[in-house]
């Protein structure tokens, strides 16, 4: 998959995956990688930036499988930002789909 496509939606994916429950970094990487391949190194800088911008708070929790894990919890500010991005995504994706349909003549049938 085109790297620019992935880069453009990674932030939205991370925000949405943390909307209903707190997640740790590797869990986010694994969840996203089930849908499309990403490198582990692309998520951690994004999480750091979003945390610095107030979209997440973090806390450590013990793990049965090793050292404590840093969990990311979506803040109210992060939730509002996520909702804005979702609206933008819907407008954007509908527009791109219409262009594809028009460009390839799908709407002429």
TrEMBL record:
Gene3D superfamilies: Winged helix-like DNA-binding domain superfamily/Winged helix DNA-binding domain. It comes from the Bacteria. Coiled coil: none annotated. Residues 14-82 form the Transcription regulator PadR N-terminal domain. InterPro entries: Metal_resp_DNA-bind_regulator (IPR052509), Tscrpt_reg_PadR_N (IPR005149), WH-like_DNA-bd_sf (IPR036388), WH_DNA-bd_sf (IPR036390). Signal peptide: none annotated. This is PadR family transcriptional regulator. It comes from Brevibacillus panacihumi. The lineage of its organism: Bacteria, Bacillati, Bacillota, Bacilli, Bacillales.
């Amino acid at each position: 998959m085109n790297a620019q496509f992935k880069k453009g939606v990674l932030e939205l994916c991370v925000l949405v995956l943390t909307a209903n429950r707190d997640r740790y970094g590797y869990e986010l990487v694994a969840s996203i990688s089930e849908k499309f391949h990403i490198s582990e190194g692309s998520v951690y800088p994004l999480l750091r930036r979003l945390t610095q911008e107030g979209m997440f708070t973090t806390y450590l929790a013990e793990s049965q499988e090793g050292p404590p894990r840093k969990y990311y919890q979506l803040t109210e500010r992060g939730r509002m930002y996520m909702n804005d991005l979702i609206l933008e995504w819907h407008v954007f994706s509908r527009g791109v789909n219409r262009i594809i349909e028009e460009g390839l003549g799908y709407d002429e049938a």
